Amino acid sequence: MAEEFNIDGMLDMFLFESGQLLEKLEGIILEKQDAECFDDADINEIFRIMHTIKGSSGILMYDNIMRTSHKLEDVFYYLRESQPDNVPHLELVENVLKVSDFINGEMDKIKNGGDADGDEGELIKVLDEFLNRIKGEIKDQGIRLPKENKHEEPSQFYIVPVASEGSHFYRITIHYRNDTQMSNIRAYSATYALKEVAEDLLYTPDDIISNEESSDVILAEGFHMLLQTKSLKDEVLGLIDCSEAEHIDFEEISSEEFGSGLVTMGRIESPVAIDLGEEDAGVREEKPHPVPGDYVVKTKETGKGKTLAKHQSKQQSMISVNVSKMDALMDLIGEIVIAEAVVLQNPDLNVPGLDLTNFQKASAQLAKVTTELQEVIMSMRMMPLTNTFQKMRRIVFDVSRKLGKDIELEVIGEDTEVDKNIIEHISDPLMHLVRNSVDHGIEENADDRIALGKPAKGKIILEAKNEGGKVYVSVKDDGKGLSKEKLYDKALANGLIENKSMSEFTDKEIYRFITLPGFSTKEEVTEYSGRGVGMDVVVKNIQSIGGRLDIDSEEGYGSEMTLAIPLTLAIINGIVVQVGNSSFVLETASIKEFVRIGEDSIIQEPGGEEYIVLRGECYPFIRLGQRYEFENCQTKVEDGVVVVLEHEGSQICVLIDSLMQEQEIVVKPIPSYVKKVRGISGCTQLGDGSIALILDIASLIEEEERR
Prior knowledge:
Layout: H1 7-31, H2 40-59, H3 63-82, H4 89-111, H5 121-140, E1 168-176, H6 183-194, E2 198-204, H7 214-221, E3 223-229, H8 233-239, E4 245-253, H9 255-260, E5 272-275, E6 283-286, E7 295-297, E8 308-310, H10 323-344, H11 357-381, E9 382-384, H12 386-403, E10 407-412, E11 417-419, H13 420-441, H14 446-451, E12 458-467, E13 470-477, H15 484-493, H16 507-511, H17 535-543, E14 548-554, E15 558-566, E16 571-579, E17 582-587, E18 591-595, E19 602-604, E20 610-614, E21 617-623, H18 624-627, E22 641-647, E23 650-656, E24 658-666, E25 680-685, E26 691-695, H19 697-706
Parallel strand pairs: 10-12, 17-26, 21-23
Antiparallel strand pairs: 1-3, 1-4, 2-3, 4-5, 5-6, 7-8, 9-11, 12-13, 13-15, 14-15, 16-17, 16-24, 18-22, 19-20, 20-21, 22-23, 25-26
Helix pairs in contact: 1-2, 1-4, 1-12, 2-3, 2-6, 3-4, 3-5, 4-5, 6-7, 10-11, 12-13, 13-17
């Protein structure tokens, strides 16, 4: 059978859908890790997930994935059918996560062009031993064991009818969600699942395996089946994988209607549609009575099963798009923004007496459409942090178990949306922060917590919120907090700070010592910490996307680390300033204020460093023109404008010649053939075609602090 269809065309969909199912599986497992047991809904959902992965991996001949998922399906089959008591819940959770890790590992091999050649033998032995214990407990509790959950390789999809007096006849139509991928495989799973109870089964389209285009037919018209079985309605529905179904039309018909394939008006009641949305399955709507001819039995060649044809259309309203195409579209939007600025700021428009009334109306409409287009494209790239936060759940579970700590993770705001590129940049930093909270933050001994009036169980809160054009992601724990004295002594001993007294540093400056390269409060090197790396990488990664890390703590009661990150990297709001004959861009969010001062406000150090005193506060001062050796720039402070810039709680003042305009800036990287210039993070094209450099505020402040 495998030679009759194109595996390559289905591989991407298999990886995508199986990945989503495994993410859903881990979400269920980690959400109920502290519960006493899984409820019926969870058991059914996990059973369906493994059943689907088993079927699709079997079709693509990934036997080790198929056997592993089938064995875990066995476990939940017995849990579902027998509902035994005293099942070791935490051991079951760990076994499910082992299966998830194994399948994910095999899928990574496939993605990288390799073979799924992992040895599943040891894992299956563990699951077998666990399953045998469950069966033993089922017998001890006096519960009758259900029949074996046997897996048989598919040979054909038509089941020879065996008539009996207790048979029921059903007409079933599955309508999958419009964004469902591999709907033909979903349909196959339904027929294959019903094989266990079917006496006779008719379905359409009949080429769900050999023809990939049958997916489009199924999405447009639904997947239709006629089923003869001794099973009742609820049992039949329980066998069908409903995870991607929008709703199912299910009705019982007579044996005559089943045999002839014709449904006549008035012979049966209107079919009941079963809604499989967010709520429990229930009545969706009453369908009109079908008319004769809606369903006909197609004549088939000898040896092939009969199928049904239904004359109905259902339009698809959603599609999946490759990420690279979205990136290309975002780049084009950036070019449109630049082209708009070129048109609206064209110097040819500065002609005295020229009537631009109509042009201004048209340009206003163009600006409106461009802005709306940009917002739509941006919204298409936005993704919730749900999957990223779910990975953090797994990290807390694994690390806390290995360290022997009892820790609860609370997640808030996981639906907060961020640009996909931003999510990719913050995943690793967020992982470091969460692991630090588990390892460094939460106390080793629960008695120490109780002595301070805290619960024995540690707690970590992972929260995301959207404010003022930025996303704030915080990791807060109720552990032992940071000791300022220990941080200061450690940094001084390692030569990471100057020989200054502790009183010369603010609390936040002392907390930021943990972000210095080579700094670690762990005396012993462990799997998770003690090497003096991690937090400095976090800061660099966050700064690379224009974000910052804020640290706050109270000794004995916990710490909070907050990532402040932009919504997107592609387009920012900026102020264009003039320095000599060159233009610079300052990100609007970094600008604290503009001031005009005199030379008497400047303090000069013997080494040449300059500082400005504003309202009793002293700030480092940089003359941009002199720093980059520009000609024709302002040398007197009184003739220019001083801009106070802020980043991660630190301020710096820079001298510019003049302000030009505020506009949306399309960020472009510095070309690779241009030598890296400190203090410059990128460039952009202005409306007149000139190039403006984007100032890297974090780099400027860091350089001044090192002086």
